[in-house]
Design goal:
The complex is a heterodimer of chains A (402) and B (234).
Chain A lengths: L2 H14 L1 H37 L5 E6 L21 H10 L3 E16 L2 E10 L2 H5 L4 E4 L13 E4 L1 H8 L8 E4 L2 E9 L4 E2 L2 E2 L4 E4 H8 L6 E6 L5 H15 L6 E4 L1 H44 L1 H9 L4 H37 L9 H27 L3 H6 L2
Parallel strand pairs in A: 3-10, 5-7
Antiparallel strand pairs in A: 1-11, 1-12, 2-3, 2-6, 2-11, 4-7, 5-10, 6-7, 8-9
Helix pairs in contact in A: 1-10, 2-8, 2-10, 2-11, 8-10, 8-11, 10-11
Chain B lengths: L1 E12 L2 E13 L4 E5 L6 H8 L7 E6 L2 E2 L5 H11 E5 L10 H11 L4 H14 L15 H13 L5 E5 L7 H16 L3 E5 L3 H6 L2 E6 L2 E8 L5 E3 L2
Parallel strand pairs in B: 3-8, 3-9, 6-7, 7-8
Antiparallel strand pairs in B: 1-2, 1-4, 4-5, 9-10, 10-11
Helix pairs in contact in B: 3-4, 3-5, 5-6
Classes of the chains: A alpha+beta (402), B alpha/beta (234).
Bound molecules: adenosine-5'-diphosphate and magnesium ion.
Chain lengths: 402, 234
């Protein structure tokens, strides 16, 4: 039998049982579209996190207080340390460890920021000018923090774009004095663009010198220290030198954790890939349900068309051909359902991207392929038994039954 | 071309055994025109199904064109049916979703013949059966006589050597029944071996050879010569 004839014959048979065909199509379509959508969510999350880390650059290492084992598990994002990181640590590392070219100690908190009568609660980040270069953040208006010692507090601030809009509207912010809690700062710079970072919208943040922030929040320790590795140094070497130096500084205890973005990235990547796979698997189960439907529908089809099977056999169709005719009904409908599911899923993914433009929802190619293969495989697997039943019928029995 | 010898077929229904074919022997020559008659339940259809390789007898011998059909597996039996045997059934057995054209074309389509080769053959057959303008109609848009003619078209498109018809006029009025009978006889005149199972004495009498069955056995088997005199066949 020619493929064109097979498709035509199958199509006519499917059209004849429109409701059943439609039901199957929807079932397979739902299964496939859920694979498409759920894996897009997982992949979107993965790409989002990857993008976040890309903001850091490969030549940056992060030091957190406290000792955490980083192998395998989630990297520590916040640390409760026995001994805090200090500005002195940051200063020593910057001056004495070869390969460390810049340090950006960080302190973070919340506070009301006001200009004249306008006030906003915003994220307060205490750091140094190196922070912006390390995070590839650009100062749009004004300038970065002036050269100063890390432990020097000055009443200057850089604010994010959104905070600037909220406090100043369209009027010029640079040069104006704003208030944070009981302290006054002169705005010296405004960040260009928006910058999301780990769910924080940095365009809503205010940045002040780290020593100033310690005063504002009345704390001594640091949240973390970011260190930039010089161009010709190996990140791993510098990392272990930093660890050694810290051990000396902290009386022989290695009570800090130094992580390189590469290690963190691959951990995240692994975790999210596994999640995506799991989520895709769950969606695959819905295809299995569709498969059971395929089996029932094919069984019904075989029962109802017994006389036709008898005729096919009478005019000399071999068993394999009869089987093929019934299998191809299930396969054709599964391909149609899978295509419909891919289109529907792609539309949903597209909608998701419009709703959350920051998360790059995309169905990975392997998931598309897998859902197609799974849909067709399911159809084959579940239609096989009924189709085989049709193939094995005795011609005279099939003809006689109505 | 057909030689059967000592063929038996029994059906078990509950605890009663039906001897549908009881030691049947029959030889049919190429080009013969036979009618098989007899009361309902006498085994006519069972005989026809067995001859058409739709059913297997319990024992005996069946040679078709010299081939021992008992030694064929199901695939080979399908091939013989496809190439050598045409069937016409009382209930037509047309596929309702296919047009008259497509029903006639089906055996060729299943055999993988190219549409270019199928077209002239189907056209030719529909023309010959008086269905030239009916090709694009579905079976339920056709009269009983037309449906049976479509079924005949389908049975001959593969150019079989024998045509087996089980009560082909059983569902038809006498006028369309006669048309169908004449078509079948025309095919026989062109060389096709024709075996017709019928209840209809008029139709049965038109054949050159009359086989009568009773209780699964052949009761009588007569040839008619040109003068109309009967003598025993075989
Ligand atoms: N599949 C079957 N199962 C049981 N009995 C059958 C079957 N087919 C035919 N028979 C019996 O075999 C006998 C002959 O049947 P059949 O050949 O159809 O008769 P006819 O065609 O002469 O009317 C009948 O008694 C019928 O009931
Ligand atoms: Mg009968």
């Amino acid at each position: 039998m020619r493929p064109v004839d097979l498709v035509k014959f199958t199509f006519l048979a499917l059209r004849r049982q429109r409701f059943r065909s439609l039901m199957l199509l929807v079932a397979v379509g739902l299964g496939v579209s859920s694979v498409v959508v759920l894996t897009a969510l997982g992949e979107g999350a993965r790409l989002y996190v990857l993008g976040e880390f890309a903001n850091l650059g490969k030549d940056t290492v992060i030091m957190l207080p406290g000792r955490k084992e980083t192998s395998g598990g989630m990297p520590p994002m916040t640390g409760t340390a026995a001994r805090p990181l200090t500005l002195h640590d940051a200063d020593v590392l910057a001056r004495t460890v070869p390969g460390v070219t810049q340090v950006a100690p960080m302190v973070m908190g919340n506070g009301p920021v006001s200009f004249k009568s306008r006030e906003r609660d915003s994220i307060v980040i205490g750091t140094t000018g190196a922070f912006f270069t390390m995070r590839f953040m650009e100062i749009g208006q004004g300038s970065n923090f002036p050269e100063m010692g890390v432990d020097e507090g000055r009443p200057v601030a850089i604010i994010g774009q959104k905070l600037k809009q909220e406090l100043f509207g369209s009027t010029r912010a640079v040069g104006q004095w704003i208030r944070l809690r009981d302290y006054r700062y002169r705005v010296i710079g405004v960040l260009a663009g928006t910058g999301d970072s780990f769910g924080l919208d940095l365009s809503e943040a205010i940045f002040i010198p780290v020593a100033s922030a310690q005063t504002v929040f009345n704390i001594h320790g640091l949240l973390r220290i970011m260190l930039k590795v010089g161009e010709h140094y190996s990140v791993e070497d510098v990392k272990s030198r930093v660890e050694r130096r810290m051990t000396e500084l902290h009386d022989g205890d290695l009570d800090v954790t130094v992580i390189s973005p590469d290690a963190m990235l691959s951990t995240f990547d692994d975790i999210i890939s596994v999640m995506t796979l799991g989520v895709g698997g769950i969606a695959g189960i819905s295809l299995l349900v569709a498969g059971i439907l395929v089996m029932n529908v094919t069984l019904m089809s075989v029962k109802q068309r017994t006389a036709e099977i008898g005729l096919l056999k009478a005019i000399g169709a071999p068993a394999a051909q009869v089987r093929l005719l019934f299998l191809s009904e299930a396969i054709l409908i599964s391909i149609a359902g899978a295509l419909a599911g891919i289109v529907a899923g792609a539309l949903l993914v597209y909608t998701g991207r419009q709703l959350a433009p920051d998360v790059p929802f995309t169905t990975p190619a392997w998931a598309l392929l897998a859902s197609l293969v799974l849909a067709i495989g399911t159809a084959l697997l579940f239609a096989w038994l009924p189709a085989q039943q049709a193939a094995e019928m005795e011609p005279v029995d099939a003809l006689g039954r109505k | 071309m057909i030689n059967i010898k000592g063929v038996n077929k029994t059906f078990v229904l509950g605890d009663s055994v039906v001897h549908a074919l009881n030691d049947v022997s029959l030889d049919i020559e190429q080009g013969e025109y036979l009618s098989v008659m007899g009361p309902s339940g006498s085994g006519k259809s069972t005989l026809l199904n067995m001859l058409g390789l739709l059913d297997r007898p319990d024992n005996g011998q069946y040679l078709l064109n010299g081939i021992d059909t008992f030694s064929l597996d199901e695939n080979e039996r399908a091939r013989v049916r496809r190439q050598e045997i045409g069937f016409v059934f009382q209930s037509y057995h047309l596929i309702n979703r296919l047009t008259a054209w497509e029903n006639v074309e089906m055996p060729m389509m299943l055999s993988g013949v190219a549409p270019r080769e199928r077209k002239p053959k189907v056209e030719n057959i529909l023309e010959k059966l008086g269905l030239a303008r009916r090709g694009h109609h579905l079976p339920n848009q056709l009269s009983g006589g037309e449906r049976q003619r479509v079924a005949i078209g389908r049975s001959i498109i593969m150019e079989p050597s024998i045509l087996l018809a089980d009560e082909p006029t059983g569902n038809l009025d006498s006028k369309s029944g006669m048309e169908v009978t004449e078509i079948l006889e025309g095919l026989n005149r062109d060389g096709l071996t024709l075996l017709v199972v019928t209840h209809d004495n008029v139709m049965g009498d038109r054949a050159q050879r009359h086989v009568r069955m009773r209780d699964g056995a052949i009761e009588s088997d007569h040839r008619h010569d040109e003068t109309g005199r009967e003598h025993a066949a075989g």
